[in-house]
Amino acid sequence: MNQRSGLEKLGYTPQGELYKSILGEFRWFMGDYLAFKSIIYYGGKIQELRQRKYKEVEFYNLYRTIETSIILNPYHEDSYYFAQAAFVWDIGRVKEVNALLKYVMKYRTWDYRIPFFLGFNYSYFMKDYEEAAKYFRKAAEISGSPLFTKLASRYFYEGGETELGIVFLKYMYENARKQAVKESYKLRLEALKKLKMLEDAVSEYKKRFNSLPEKLDQLVKKGFIDKIPHDPYGGKFYIDEKGKIRTTSKLTNKKGGKNEGS
């Protein structure tokens, strides 16, 4: 692919829904063909991409081609993989790719990778932690993976939905089959409960004094809590400049040189 001349041009592709009604049962074949055509074209532009000459790539036509491919055949996984790789990282069209992923997710209901990609895009690129948590939770429910469960609980917390994270983790804990996984959930659940307790105390402090405490010690001195709880991950809880409860451990377990997860 690195040696290809890149002479192929994509040109215009008809809108997916229109094409779909015209092609009928042939739409599956055409969807696969357009996905293949897009990937071949992109491969022929490797040199330009490496040199960051993005203007020499027909990104608009490329997007329309892969969009039509997905509408014609949403079950073809190469299409959404390619969209995630080419448009999110190279040109930052995250919203457009998310729209394609949501369309595919309605059909590939068993595929945990689609909500995982959505969760990643919302958290990493868009900083929308509430949406990220929603899709990581979906990935966790489909796959049963402890990693996605931890990511979901993490971003519920980041998005100000700690209580929802607790409810979700409790459900996953109760339904986990492996004891090691249950213990991992139990640790995260304990941490979130302590975070929630501190968040509630800060909220009450703000209501009474119309300001945020500078340090958590003030919550103890004013009688909102008996003591600052211990972080089960080994860190120390603190309050940041925006009033968000944080911990130096970042909810990760690094004992023995191993990182248990974000």
Describe the protein's architecture and organization.
With 262 residues, the chain is mainly α. It has helices spanning 16-23, 27-43, 46-50, 59-72, 77-88, 94-105, 113-125, 129-143, 146-158, 162-175, 179-209, 217-221, and strands spanning 237-239, 245-247. Helices cover 61% and strands 2% of the residues. A hairpin with a 5-residue loop joins strand 1 (237-239) and strand 2. The radius of gyration is 24 Å and the shape is elongated. The two termini are 37 Å apart. The model is unreliable at 1-7 and 255-262 (pLDDT under 50).
Order of helices and strands: HHHHHHHHHHHHEE
Give the oligomer, counting copies of the same chain as homo and different chains as hetero.
single chain
Mean pLDDT: 82
Question: Strand share of the residues?
Answer: under 5%
The main sheet comes to: 2 strands, antiparallel
Helix content: 55-70%
User: For the largest beta sheet, what order do the strands appear in spatially?
Assistant: 1-2
Helix-strand makeup class: mainly alpha
Distance between the termini: 37 Å
Please give the count of helices: 12
Please count the beta strands (DSSP E, at least 2 residues each): 2
Radius of gyration: 24 Å
